[in-house]
Specification:
By secondary structure, the protein is mostly helical. About 65% of the residues lie in helices and about 5% in strands. Strand 1 and strand 2 form a beta hairpin. The radius of gyration is 19 Å and the shape is globular.
């Protein structure tokens, strides 16, 4: 995955500051809120999920794959997605394209052996399920992560967006070209 897509040129950063005529610059305020969100997110991963960040990112690739497959049938509500995850865990849903150690390693640009080791650790915690034929899928333990961790993260994102909206950061972000 190319990092060039995520770069913002200096013109946008400067324009970000100049959009607020006769007001104090807001970039640092928005960045501070973002950094505090990331720190809280990272801390919750370590505390609540008891996994390292790289394992969490590997888990997100599996979640992403599951969401991609789920969205083929249309968007889902929180509860509908929860049921879809339960169906995946009960093997009532099969993905046309199976997820492998190699495919995760390729997406994340990390060694296949690192992916294998971390996936097996997540399997031992019942967060992931590894099947020779069906590939890597969400495990029984992911139901709790979805219910608790995803709910809290959604609330935290809402709080961040409200802060950005109140300060004018959100409007500026939406207007970056």
């Amino acid at each position: 995955m190319s990092l060039d897509k995520t770069k913002m040129d200096n013109d946008n950063i400067v324009a970000f500051e100049k959009n607020r005529v006769a007001e104090k610059p807001i970039f640092s305020n928005g960045l501070y809120s973002w950094v505090m969100f990331v720190i809280s997110f990272y801390s919750r991963i370590k505390e609540k999920l008891n996994i390292d960040f790289e394992s969490f990112i590997i888990l997100q690739v599996v979640v992403s794959h599951s969401l991609y497959e789920a969205n083929k049938d249309g968007n889902k509500s929180f509860n509908e997605l929860e049921q879809h995850i339960a169906n995946i865990i009960q093997n009532n849903v099969t993905h046309k394209n199976k997820l492998t150690f190699a495919s995760i390693a390729e997406v994340l640009q990390i060694p296949r052996e690192t992916v294998r080791r971390k996936v097996m650790s997540l399997k031992n915690k019942n967060i992931l399920f590894v099947h020779n034929t069906n590939g890597i899928k969400l495990g029984v333990g992911y139901k709790e992560i979805y219910k608790d961790f995803v709910s809290q993260t959604t609330l935290d994102i809402s709080t961040l967006m409200k802060k950005w909206n109140k300060s004018g950061v959100l409007e500026n972000l939406l207007n970056i070209k």
